[in-house]
Amino acid sequence: MSDNKSTPNPGDRVGVYFCECHSSGLCDRFDFDDLETFAHEFPQVVLIRRNPKLCGKEAIEGIKKDIKEHSLKRILVATCAPDKHLEEFRTAAVEAGLNRYLVDAVNIREQLAFIHTKDPEKARKKARDQFAMGMANLMAVKPADKVYAIVDETKCNGCEICYTVCDKDAITMIPDPYGRVSKISHPEPDKCWGCGVCVTSCPVNVMDMTVYSNAQMEAQVDTFIERMEHNMINSLVFACHWCAYPAGDAAGAEGIEIEPDFRIIRTLCSGRVNPDWVLKALSRGADGVLLMGGKPNHCHFNTGNIRTMRRMKLIKFLMEQMGLDGRRFRVEWVNPDEPYEYANIVNSFVNDLRKLGPNPLSSRESDYSSAKNKKEKISNQG
Ligand code: SF4
Ligand code: SF4
Fold first, then answer.
1. Could you tell me the domains of the chain?
2. Cβ–ligand 2 contact at 208 (below 6 Å)
3. Which of 41, 24, 43, 135 is closest to 85 using CA atoms?
């Protein structure tokens, strides 16, 4: 255990827990010392612990004790796949007085140590990046009772798009209490299953989610952008919680080696991914963005993937206007029981980016030549 000497705001005191997972051999495959050193750089981190089995009863009781004794306000666990033990850590935190969503996880096992064994240097860099993205996500989350859509009633224009796209009939249009328009959107938390499709569809961006919020997602994208390095391929993967992300976990469980040159953001549904996030990453120099969700007829949220498919066509068009090769953005479908397919998709995407070379919009190439090429291309199109 080690204490950070800086003094964060009382509401920002973060406890970090590394599970060395001795039973799975993770301790032999992962550079915990390096990640612990890195974790100390975050001023909010006031407590770091390493445990050989964090999901054990004693360790979980220890987390509860730490929350009280060290006045921890948020917890980040660096452990295995979130569907394995995150729920137990959250339950413990609730018992110690924290809101459940102020506890989150970075998957250093299936999505990191078990799939990147051949290049320890790249694996270390990736672990730091994923940890930084995890911290950004954790610091942006707000306490919530559950995951559901919310709307800024004072800004809704009553267009009904959210109402139309909701597969759960979780949105009703109600008379505008402010008298600005005839009706406004009213999501019902009890009916909402948290897909986020309505949030991404709102044309005036007045919707959000209580958890997996815009602020959380954008914080992760921004951190990815800040941490890009010129001597590597910088690619960002959005993977849905129910299909693509578990396919990656299954790949880790199988020990399938995967190219390490990508960073991953977990979303509840592929339909939650806002085209702005994709375009932001690409316009700031990311070499590529891969969006993965479940195959048609397998989407946990019925039609979330179909809406994604339609929406993302726009991105290719905008990329063309930006002078970017359309192959830098790809949408792929994979089911949770398809680890080899997951690995093939990621590997082929990263390899294609390697062949394409650096993003011309990155500072690695002359801004002027990129802008000039773009201008010539547009004028040739008439
Ligand atoms: S998040 Fe999904 S289920 Fe909830 S209101 Fe929006 S579209 Fe409906
Ligand atoms: S899509 Fe946005 S603006 Fe339109 S009704 Fe829904 S919340 Fe209001």
1. 1-122 (3.40.50), 149-209 (3.30.70.20), 227-382 (3.40.50)
2. no
3. 24
Check if 161 has its Cβ closer than 6 Å to any atom of ligand 2.
yes
Question: Which residue's alpha carbon is nearest to atom 6 within ligand 2?
Answer: 162
Instruction: Count CB atoms within 10 A of the CB of residue 2.
Output: 13
What does the alpha-carbon distance between residue 293 and residue 308 come to, in Å, rounded to a whole number? 9
**Ligand 2 centroid distance, CA of 176 (Å):** 12
From the CA of 163, how far away is ligand 1's center (Å)?
A: 9
Q: Look-up: residue for tokens 């953005």?
A: 329
Judge whether residue 90 has pLDDT over 90. Answer: yes
**Nearest Cα residue to atom 4 of ligand 1:** 192
Distance of CA 303 from the midpoint of ligand 1 (Å): 12
Question: β-strands 45-51, 74-79: how paired?
Answer: unpaired
Q: How far is the CA of 207 from the centre of ligand 2 (A)?
A: 7
Average pLDDT, whole number, for the chain?
90
Q: Nearest residue CA, atom 2 of ligand 1?
A: 195
Higher per-residue confidence, 341 vs 81 = 341
Nearest atom within ligand 2 for CA of residue 160: 5
Instruction: Read off the pLDDT of residues 9-58 as tens digits, 9 standing for 90 and up.
Output: 766 899 999 999 887 777 788 899 999 999 999 999 999 999 999 989 99
Contact indicator for 308, 293 with CB cutoff of 8 Å:
yes
Ligand found nearest the CA of 268: 1
Do 47 and 72 meet the contact criterion of CB atoms below 8 Å apart?
yes
**Is ligand 1 within 6 A of the CB of residue 171?**
yes
Please tell me the pTM assigned to this model: 0.91
The one-letter code for the residue type at 148 is: Y
- For 323-373, the pLDDT digits (tens) are 999 999 999 999 999 999 999 999 999 999 999 999 999 865 444 455 555
* Mean pLDDT value of segment 221-240: 96
- Residue 187 CA: nearest ligand 1 atom is 5
What percent of the chain stands above pLDDT 90?
77
